[in-house]
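User: Please fill in residues for this 277-position structure.
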């Protein structure tokens, strides 16, 4: 059976890949295989991969909302748009969990022109700039023009003294982060020029999806028990992650949930974080 991907490309349906993606969300192999068996009658030649995802997502949701939330992580990160402002703050949180000191939305004066930086990070006396490239559509990849442009900004800033962390810092490294994927040429250029690249699946085994799961820093936008409007209320209050939500009781007060809904949201949050109820 053929499947139409987000990009429009037609490929063979890969059952093992679907099972693996459900298992990575927390479901056991047997459950994943049963879900596949249940949705197979609804599959057809040329079905969009997006529809297969929705079918699997709904089945996972009936078994465990936390499984469904992990399965929907990529869409949850995409919901941090459309402008990408929340995505930049989310990436800042990721670096903080890895021991960095961070600051967002910084204006710096380079050798030739001024620049607005998404994130500045510091660790062990080394300062780096982090540029975030947010895409609101899954089929869009970050091509080679972006790292080439970011490198030119880095070159204009690396000799400039900055004082956002201490009075005698210089930017010595540059990161380019995207919520989607890089083209092969973008990766090749990044590796050759010394840029640090981070995308949904790159570096292999240590991409954005891997770091999120390792540090359990799930965005609130992947929760299945909250409405879009409720998530927006939290984002406006700077509550970006499930960890922030579950550890800030005032956040729940702002949502004005019924006791039964509150328990459901808290249960999903705790299951995502693997903590005791």
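Assistant: Residues filled in for all 277 positions:
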């Amino acid at each position: 059976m053929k499947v139409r991907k987000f990009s429009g490309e037609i490929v063979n349906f890969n059952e093992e890949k679907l099972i693996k993606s459900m298992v990575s969300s927390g479901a056991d192999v047997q459950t994943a295989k049963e879900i596949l068996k249940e949705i197979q009658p609804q599959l057809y030649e040329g079905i969009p991969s997006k529809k297969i995802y929705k079918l699997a997502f709904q089945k996972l949701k009936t078994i465990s909302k936390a499984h469904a939330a992990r399965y929907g992580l990529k869409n949850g990160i995409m919901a941090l748009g459309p402008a990408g402002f929340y995505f930049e703050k989310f990436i800042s949180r990721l670096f903080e969990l890895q021991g960095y000191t961070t600051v967002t939305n910084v204006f710096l004066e380079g050798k030739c022109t001024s620049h607005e930086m998404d994130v500045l990070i510091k660790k062990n006396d080394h300062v780096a700039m982090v540029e975030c490239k947010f895409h609101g559509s899954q089929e869009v990849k970050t091509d080679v023009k972006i790292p080439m442009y970011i490198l030119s900004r880095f070159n204009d800033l690396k000799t400039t003294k900055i004082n956002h962390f201490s009075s005698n810092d210089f930017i010595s490294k540059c990161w380019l982060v995207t919520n989607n994927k890089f083209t092969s040429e973008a990766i090749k250029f990044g590796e050759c020029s010394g840029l640090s690249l981070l995308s949904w699946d790159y570096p292999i085994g240590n991409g954005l999806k891997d770091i999120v799961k390792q540090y359990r820093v799930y965005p609130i936008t992947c929760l299945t028990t909250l409405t879009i409007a409720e998530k927006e209320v939290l984002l406006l209050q700077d509550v970006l992650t499930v960890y922030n939500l579950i550890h800030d009781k005032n956040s729940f007060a702002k949502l004005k949930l019924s006791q039964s809904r509150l328990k459901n949201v808290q249960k999903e949050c705790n299951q995502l974080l693997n903590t005791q109820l």
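For context: The chain has three domains: 2-63, 85-213, 219-273.
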